[in-house]
Design brief:
Blueprint: H1 2-20, H2 27-31, H3 35-38, H4 59-65, E1 68-72, E2 75-77, E3 79-81, H5 85-96, E4 99-106, E5 110-114, E6 124-127, E7 132-136, E8 140-144, E9 149-158, H6 162-169, E10 174-180
Antiparallel strand pairs: 1-2, 1-10, 3-9, 4-5, 4-10, 5-8, 6-9, 7-8, 7-9
């Protein structure tokens, strides 16, 4: 019974090909490339010329190319920014308008301040060092002049000698500004 069903299906397939006027194709013929497919550009009879295209510049690409500037009490501070989702979002927000944060000392080793909204975080347990800039609890920026071990998202590092970072971050009142240039 099973063999009869298979034979009927095969016969039906052949009849369908015949009714459509199609010739059965051997598998080897179907997979071999034609001469036109294997010919190089100099061998084709109808070559197509394509102009080199230049990449489109999108607003998002331009934003990530812009430099984010950190200013502490009117002093521009050199920073080596991390390349992650958190810094990209901070850069996008700073491009809309400067982000200004009042910092407060905490624990004798850091200055911390609220960013006023949550940012993407990828917290990992790490030990900070003098000059580290991190995101804490998704909405606070922290600048370190000492060490601490906790779960943070790394944003960057102040590119100054340790004694200059300590002098900068142990002032009584600190205002941090993030802007984009």
């Amino acid at each position: 019974m099973r063999q009869a069903a298979i034979a009927l299906i095969a016969l039906f397939g052949l009849l369908l090909f015949a009714a459509c006027g199609a010739e059965p194709v051997e598998p080897a013929q179907a997979t071999e490339p034609t001469a036109a497919e294997t010919a190089g550009p100099e061998q084709t009879s109808n070559p197509t010329v394509t102009e080199p295209t230049k990449p489109e510049t999108t607003a998002a690409a331009e934003e990530t190319e812009k430099t984010m500037i950190l200013t502490v009490n009117e002093q521009t501070v050199p920073v080596l920014w991390e390349s992650n989702e958190s810094t990209a979002e901070l850069r996008r927000q700073a491009a809309q308008g400067a982000i200004t944060v009042a910092l407060s000392p905490y624990g004798g080793f850091e200055q911390v301040g609220s960013l006023g909204r949550s940012y993407p975080a990828n917290d990992v347990r790490l030990t900070t060092k003098n000059g580290d800039i991190v995101l804490y609890a998704s909405d606070q920026i922290v600048l370190f002049y000492g060490e601490n071990t906790w779960a943070y998202t790394r944003l960057g590092r102040i590119d100054l000698p340790a004694d200059e970072v300590t002098r900068l971050l142990t002032q009584e009142k600190i205002t941090l500004t993030l802007s984009v240039k």
